[in-house]
Design the sequence.
């Protein structure tokens, strides 16, 4: 597993510096231009756009050299391990985004500290977006799905304020959820995350195993 994850990082080594710049630069830019927007929304946008470039870079490299993937699967690596490594790869980038934001919030007083709930909800949204995209990419390939991720990312980023307003101005509310004890809320969200990831991972593995290389 370590070697497979390392392989993904090597494929995007040219863009790792840009990934670091985005993880630190997006929150700093927003703190400078619109400090009132700091917090959950900015962290969500940072995570989504920081992961976007590594994901597209890995997928592009694999699409450009399909024989390399075939050779990899003839080595002592199961196809399921190749898929699992991809999910671990994105989990590492998400953790890096969390650390980057935490460091910035300690160094820059104007930056709002993230709560644990902010991180969990962001990871839930992150899991849903990429949980939909990755199986579809394994199914249809990079060329047919490269614009789908962009649509999902922009929809998530720009529709989030509208969704929040919808909840605020209609009879839809989260009183039942927010009324639960905090540990129960965390457990519920983490359970949903695990279900989303499990479904996505299973679909990706089955698709990749059935794919002719």
Sequence:
């Amino acid at each position: 597993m370590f070697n497979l994850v390392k392989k993904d990082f090597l494929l995007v080594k040219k863009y790792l510096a840009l990934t670091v710049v985005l993880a630190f630069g997006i929150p700093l830019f927003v703190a400078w231009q619109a400090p009132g927007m700091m917090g959950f929304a900015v962290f969500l946008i940072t995570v989504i756009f920081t992961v976007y470039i590594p994901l597209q870079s890995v997928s592009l490299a694999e699409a450009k050299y399909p024989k390399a993937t075939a050779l990899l699967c003839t080595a002592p690596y199961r196809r399921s391990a190749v898929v699992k490594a991809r999910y671990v790869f994105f989990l590492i980038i998400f953790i890096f985004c969390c650390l980057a934001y935490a460091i910035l919030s300690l160094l820059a007083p104007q930056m709002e500290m993230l709560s644990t709930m902010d991180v969990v909800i962001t990871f839930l949204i992150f899991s849903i977006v990429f949980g939909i995209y990755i199986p579809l990419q394994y199914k249809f390939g990079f060329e047919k799905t490269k614009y789908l991720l962009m649509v999902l990312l922009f929809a998530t980023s720009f529709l989030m304020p509208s969704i929040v307003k919808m909840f605020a101005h209609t009879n839809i509310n989260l009183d039942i959820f927010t009324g639960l004890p905090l540990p129960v809320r965390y457990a519920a969200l983490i359970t949903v995350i695990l279900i989303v990831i499990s479904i996505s991972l299973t679909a990706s593995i089955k698709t990749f195993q059935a794919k002719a290389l």
